[in-house]
From TrEMBL:
Organism: Gracilimonas mengyeensis
Protein name according to UniProt: Ribosomal protein L11 methyltransferase
Binding residues for S-adenosyl-L-methionine: 129, 150, 172, 215
GO MF entry, a single one: protein-lysine N-methyltransferase activity
PANTHER family: ELECTRON TRANSFER FLAVOPROTEIN BETA SUBUNIT LYSINE METHYLTRANSFERASE (PTHR43648)
Record keywords: Cytoplasm, Methyltransferase, Ribonucleoprotein, Ribosomal protein, S-adenosyl-L-methionine, Transferase
Reaction(s) this enzyme catalyzes, per UniProt: L-lysyl-[protein] + 3 S-adenosyl-L-methionine = N(6),N(6),N(6)-trimethyl-L-lysyl-[protein] + 3 S-adenosyl-L-homocysteine + 3 H(+)
Length: 278
């Protein structure tokens, strides 16, 4: 897949806000530099109207923010770019690292997650993924069956299986995710994780789940909830992430969530995740 990379001048104080807005516009990769942000999006999801929308958002931030440069990044450069920026990290109970940085001999009681991200979202670096990884041990029980909507690298489904879930099904509309999640399944030697390219239409017919993980973004979640919620078992839990603080009330008012109990909302930086129970 080919990507468009935008280099944007933006003061450090406004970078998180801009990342959140670009994320809602389907941007996937972000690199924060000194008063600059580099953001990337698949070429197929970028057009003049998105560029105009970004320019409007930048104007609203103040006169100094602007798109400095726009360039096309061909496929083959991505791994190299990622390899420079991805470092091992501890997130809650997990030690997350790529294959090119070996796990130290002693990671104590941490659970190892080996994730080679390539271009799929889910390095564990984004706050929305970290938020779920930190919370996951409290949500997943032994024997649970998991549905991972927008699986990206497969990191959340793999983590859930390592916590004792018996099986997981992940889906993603991004073809890189399908390939990459499958690679990460092999790396982590997890069994019973099936990944498919597509959206809710690829969920096995009639199947219901104990836990649904959905780290996508507000607009996609609003569209997908009517298809996801009926896939919850009785007392099943759904965790919605990829949301900003201000999205909480909009989400909780969604008709598809009407019959669910809101258990808890957690926040990390400006991002929130909402847990509900059927
Ligand atoms: C924020 S990433 C999350 C990746 C991973 N689950 C994580 O937590 O790190 C969202 C993923 O959802 C996928 N996605 C976006 N819209 C979707 C849709 N309508 N159906 C399925 N996947 C979608 C994107 O391709 C992307 O890989």
């Amino acid at each position: 897949m080919e990507y468009i990379e935008l280099r944007i001048s933006v003061q450090d104080d406004f970078q998180e806000l801009l990342i959140a807005e670009l994320f809602d516009l389907d941007f996937e990769g972000f690199e924060q530099l000194d008063n600059e942000l580099v953001a990337s999006i698949p070429t197929s999801r970028f057009d003049d109207s998105k560029r105009e929308e970004i320019e409007k958002k930048l104007m609203a931030l103040g006169g100094e923010s602007a798109i400095l440069n726009e360039r096309v990044i061909p496929d083959q450069n991505w791994n190299e770019a990622w390899e420079r920026t991805i470092k091992p990290q501890t997130i809650g109970k997990f030690y997350v690292h790529p294959t090119w940085s070996q796990s130290p001999d002693d990671i104590g009681d941490k659970i190892e997650l080996m994730i080679d991200p390539k271009m799929a979202f889910g390095t564990g670096y984004h706050a929305t993924t970290r938020l779920i990884l930190e919370w996951l041990p409290d949500i997943v029980d032994e024997g649970d069956e998991i549905l991972d909507a927008g699986t990206g690298t497969g990191i959340l489904a793999i983590a859930a299986l390592k916590l004792g879930a018996t099986s997981a099904f992940g889906f993603d509309v991004d073809e890189w995710s399908e390939t990459n999640a499958k690679e990460n399944i092999l790396l982590n030697e997890v069994e019973n994780l099936e990944v498919k390219l597509g959206s809710t239409e690829v969920i096995p017919e009639g199947k219901k789940y104990d836990v649904i993980l959905a780290n996508i973004n507000r607009n996609a979640l609003i569209d997908l909830l009517p298809m996801l919620v009926p896939r919850l078992k009785e007392n099943g839990r759904i965790l919605l992430s990829g949301l900003l603080e201000d999205d909480e009330q909009t989400m909780l008012k969604q008709p598809a969530l009407e019959k669910l109990n809101h258990l808890k909302t957690k926040q990390l930086e400006e991002w929130i995740a909402i847990l509900l129970e059927a």
